[in-house]
TrEMBL record:
Modification 4-aspartylphosphate, positions: D56
Keyword Phosphoprotein in record: yes
Stored InterPro entries: Bact_response_regulator, CheY-like_superfamily, Sig_transdc_resp-reg_receiver
Origin: domain of life: Bacteria
UniProt key word Phosphoprotein: yes
Ranges of residues in domain Response regulatory: 6-121
Protein name: Response regulator
Organism: Gluconobacter cadivus
One Pfam match: Response_reg
Keywords: Phosphoprotein
Amino acid sequence: MPSSLTVLLIEDDFLIRTCLAEFLLDNGLTVREADHCAEARAIIGAEPKLDALVADMTLPDGDGMTLVQPARERWPDLPVIYISGHGDLRRGETSGDPARDRFISKPYTLASILEALEDMTSAASD
């Protein structure tokens, strides 16, 4: 995976977010972190480039799926990984294309997120 990839990680659980962010950083990715929707929207508006989005489905001030529309207005082919521990994986509300949208249920392994990012970003660059 190219080290120039920038990922926005939106997760309200501090320990989960920190562990995943550090794992991704250790594997050469640049990680922007948000713990709620408002912070994520600000990053989406300000960031010059995002290569992928990892969004928790349930956040204190909204739903991770609502962040995809503004992100894809800026980056139409942005790969998105939705994560959830609540079983609310609403696949019918996405493109259905595994190169663009993936769902991963908690608990997950850190490696499974990295593998999905590698797969999705390499498909996007082909």
